[in-house]
Amino acid sequence: MCGIVGAVAQRNIVPVLIEGLRRLEYRGYDSCGVATVTAAGPQRVRSVSRVAELDEQVRTAHFEGVTGIAHTRWATHGAPTVNNAHPIFSRDALAIVHNGIIENYEALREMLRAKGYEFVSQTDTEVIAHLIHSLYKGDLFAAVREAVLQLAGAYAIGVVHKDQPHVVVGARAGSPLVVGYGEGEYFIASDALAIAGSANRVSYLEEGDVCEISLEGVRIADRAGNLVTRESRDVQAYGGYGDTVDLGPYRHYMQKEIFEQPRAISDTIPALDEAFDPVLFGENAAEVFEGIDSILILACGTSYYAGLTAKYWLETVAKIRTDVEIASEYRYRESVPNPRSLVVTISQSGETADTLAALKHAQSLGMEHTLAVCNVATSAMVRLTEFTFLTHAGREIGVASTKAFTTQLVGLFILAVTLGKLRGHVNAEQEAGYLKLLRHLPAALNGVLALEPQIIAWSEEFARKENALFLGRGLHYPIALEGALKLKEISYIHAEAYPAGELKHGPLALVTEAMPVVTVAPNDALLEKLKSNMQEVRARGGQLYVFADADTHITSEEGIHVIRMPEHYGLLSPILHVVPLQLLAYHTASARGTDVDKPRNLAKSVTVE
Ligand code: G6P
């Protein structure tokens, strides 16, 4: 992952670089740093704290410069120490920032050691620094073009050299990089958002491109070394930045985003007349959807759990066989491709490296019909797929996904009903019923959000625990998985989810009075089975914390704590039931004082495999 930003200008560029880093922190936040360059050599400030702290450091030190590069890191090679923080230097002449992983770094390091280069960090990045330094003969653009030919793996880099103090050179392969055009000043960045405001227009570099930005303008060379132009677009196309960063009355972005869900969902539900029309997914979707005989869903993390939920809907409503795979597994295993399958990738960011690679893998196996359910219209995933369903969650800042998840579920439910209609399994009455459920969803969610005070009371007990189990059945098993993921990623409490029927096959051994067992209890066909599983927990002294639909009539008693949800919400019940689990994780983490929006070791957008 990691985020990089660079700039050449005729003004002090450090505040722009720091603001860029702030906007790139979603890509990792283990450490950060900034370097400027003068004819005397590069100078840098680095921190293992957050960008806000780096900002303090540069202000106190009056650290300034007209040409610079900056980095926010998600550690891969080498611990997150100041010494491993970027920018990385080579012989006090050259500085580099790097996003990605160099796979042949060991061989390159030996080759460079033989040439007398000393390595002072544990990073793979340092080999690129020395390699470019060793090839530099007065033209940084040329040296980088030569160097990247020797690199295997994924990279986006920004480089400066003391002998060209008004030049930044960038290059990319596998990791994204954009060039930004301002008024007589130029930028590079991992994401257009980082430089929106300073740059008016941006160009996406293509695989293997190397660029040079200087006061004279921009030069781009392709992998073969030919000078090329890359189409530029108005930076506004990538959305504004300002409005979404205001926390309003909330303590954290995650809390704000949980409460934004009714709005996000209502923005995602299409207009009445096209509610379940294939055209929602793309021009000729009807024709393609009619020809498919199965679905293959590929995703990671929370998006994968959205896929697991969708499997139930697709098989129940559309009666279409659906497989769901973790993208990082699918891309490397031997599978039996079905060209009549619709490949559905689910991703908030549309940039997750494993999901993109899994998509390309499926395409390479001859599965040409692809659909992205995605929150970012300009993302690589949307560009790569035949069809798109855009969720309108708005920018999600908290690393733990909330509103992106529930809007993905809405998109996937719409897909299930659309396919069900096309395949003759949904009649007009059922369609009207599904539409009504969807339209009422934002109001129903508001009812669940009103349970926050009761959930806060529970979270105070959870904050003192080190383990928790989550149980669900059927359509709500993926919701239990998502609840456990939310709790572990932000509160650092070990949490696991099981389909309740599996309890007796192992996890019951863990159940004691000290073990809270969170139970998702909708009033569906599996309720009686679930109640039996709850008794199995009670018989072993386990403490049940149950989110029960009002019409289940499950009530609190010794060892059974109940929060009453609204009445059962039919097939869309998972969207209601995940919300209290998000709130429970949020308030538990908050009570433990963790960094809720930026949990340790994680990142929002995982652009390395
Ligand atoms: C990271 C995030 C998760 C997210 C996952 C997949 O792990 O922290 O919140 O679910 O990546 O990301 P995507 O953008 O593809 O949905």
Mass-distribution shape: globular
Instruction: Count all strands and give the number.
Output: 25
How many domains?
3
Beta-strand fraction estimate: 15-25%
List cofactors, ions and other ligands. 6-O-phosphono-alpha-D-glucopyranose
Instruction: Report low-confidence residues grouped into runs of 5 or more.
Output: none
Main sheet overview = 8 strands, antiparallel
Radius of gyration: 26 Å
Task: Indicate the percent of residues in helices.
Answer: 25-40%
Helix and strand composition category: alpha/beta
User: For this structure, what is the CATH homologous superfamily of the largest domain?
Assistant: Aminohydrolase, N-terminal nucleophile (Ntn) domain
Count, helices? 19
CATH fold naming of the largest domain: Glutamine Phosphoribosylpyrophosphate, subunit 1, domain 1
Strands side by side in the biggest sheet? 3-2-4-1-10-9-11-15
Rounded average pLDDT: 94
> Which architecture of the largest domain per CATH?
4-Layer Sandwich
N- to C-terminal separation? 9 Å
CATH class of the largest domain: Alpha Beta
Domain Glutamine amidotransferase type-2: 2-216
Enzyme class: transferase
Keywords: Aminotransferase, Cytoplasm, Glutamine amidotransferase, Repeat, Transferase
Protein name: Glutamine--fructose-6-phosphate aminotransferase [isomerizing]
